[in-house]
Design brief:
Layout: H1 2-20, E1 22-24, E2 30-34, H2 37-41, H3 45-78, H4 82-90, H5 97-108, H6 113-120, H7 134-158, H8 163-170, H9 175-186, H10 188-203, H11 207-213, H12 220-229, H13 234-290
């Protein structure tokens, strides 16, 4: 396993880091001399604008995905047909990624399903431009990564003790208050994983923005591809890739930190429960018997 990770993860990452500190080659590749020119270019106004656009699209996509995935995961955890629902969530993975994107392109086109429905209902007088907008990019990205958010949320909610929600309702809490103050804190690990599985691939998305969004939705992933394939500026492409990698690493570290805190809280709660069972629980029973 160590050899596998070294060969297919660590070594390519080190090559990217090394290339980012080299000079641009005359025609292609890199010149083996130290240079910070690639990082100076990262302060360019255009790059900052593309980075902010990428962050905005990734953040909006992640928030919408969580809003949709949370009730789905909750319903699946409470359902008696979990196997069937899991199958329905996994079915999209059986279809090629590009095929699903082309299907959405047909749906969102000027003569697609959305425009046809709006025209027949008389809601619009002419076809609406859905394609090549940031809204279309967000919609398709939400569809693509929704299963990645539903599955970890379902796994966390399925382990939750729902009697705690009933106890909160008996003590006067509303449904929304019990959900926010009891359920959400206990599934933080699943929420962190869902955010990680959605934000990181969206932050580095390449195919969806270029096919569905066009130039108005140009993102960092498209910039990396253009720097490698068109501009032939490998050091700058490596520097941008390193930025995306560091953002990914920060997300992973945050998720691991949340999981460690949750594990520590669970261990502490179990220790308190064991202590109560050994001492305080007996005292409570004795007090109750005396009364």
């Amino acid at each position: 396993m160590a050899l596998w990770f070294t060969a297919f993860f660590l070594a390519p990452a080190l090559i990217i880091v090394a290339y980012s500190f080299m000079a641009r080659g005359t025609y292609v590749g890199v010149a083996r001399e130290f240079s910070l020119e690639a990082y100076r270019l990262l302060a360019d106004r255009a790059f900052v604008g593309i980075t902010l656009r990428t962050l905005r699209i990734a953040a909006v996509t992640t928030v919408i995905t969580l809003i949709v995935a949370l009730p789905c995961g909750y319903y699946m955890a409470r359902s008696k047909r979990q196997g069937l629902l899991l199958l329905l969530i996994i079915i999209p993975f059986w279809t090629n990624f590009l095929v699903r994107i082309f299907a959405w392109m047909n749906i969102l086109s000027r003569d697609g399903l959305f425009n046809e429905a709006l025209l027949r209902l008389g809601l619009v007088g002419e076809p609406v431009q859905f394609m090549f907008t940031q809204g279309a990019v967000v919609l398709v990205l939400v569809y693509m990564y929704l299963p990645y958010a539903i599955l970890p949320l379902f796994a966390s909610i399925d382990k939750f003790d729902f009697s705690l929600l009933e106890a909160a309702r008996d003590l006067g809490a509303s449904k929304l208050s019990a959900f926010a103050r009891i359920l959400l804190p206990n599934i933080r690990g699943g929420l962190a994983t869902a955010v990680l599985f959605t934000f990181i691939p969206t932050f580095g998305a390449y195919v969806v923005p270029i096919l569905v969004g066009g130039r108005s939705s140009y993102m960092l992933g498209n910039m990396v591809a253009d720097q490698f394939l068109s501009a032939r500026n490998w050091p700058r492409a490596s520097a941008i890739s390193l930025v995306i990698t560091l953002a990914t690493l920060a997300g992973v570290m945050l998720t691991m930190s949340v999981r460690r805190r949750d594990a520590a809280r669970l261990a502490e709660a179990r220790a308190v429960g064991d202590g109560g069972a050994d001492g305080s629980g007996v005292g409570a029973c004795a007090g109750g018997g005396a009364r």
